[in-house]
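RECORD TYPE: inverse folding
INPUT: structure tokens
STRUCTURE:
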């Protein structure tokens, strides 16, 4: 059965680790920490790699969540891919642990006009 859990989150840390620019395209690496509240409750750490230039930008990231989802404690890894056409978030197969062992699914992030971050997890266990 597919379930949906919603939460909000704040970015606690945004730490650029390295940048490199050549031929008009910049590479960047960023370490991020987040705190989630709602049906997804807990924290995450993110390793993000991005590339951007005057006409385009994209990133990939891995996010390790240590959370409870609808009251089940454990965690999993989200794999992010994003470019000018949109953002995709998928749970990395086999990454679930604790009471979230076996979790699969997708997620979405929306930022409202007041810069609040909203997280929706669509999952099966």
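DESIGNED SEQUENCE:
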């Amino acid at each position: 059965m597919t379930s949906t859990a919603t939460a909000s989150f704040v970015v606690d840390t945004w730490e650029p680790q390295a940048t490199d620019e050549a031929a008009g395209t910049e590479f960047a690496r960023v370490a991020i920490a987040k705190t989630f509240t709602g049906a997804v409750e807990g924290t995450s750490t993110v390793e993000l790699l991005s590339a951007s230039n005057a006409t385009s930008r994209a990133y990939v990231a891995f996010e390790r969540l240590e959370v409870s989802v609808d009251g089940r404690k454990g965690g999993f890894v989200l794999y992010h891919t994003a470019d000018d056409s949109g953002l995709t978030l998928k749970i990395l197969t086999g990454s679930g642990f604790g009471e979230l062992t076996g979790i699969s699914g997708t997620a979405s992030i929306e930022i409202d006009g007041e810069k609040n971050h909203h997280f929706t997890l669509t999952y099966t266990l």
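NOTES: The longest strand covers residues 2-22.
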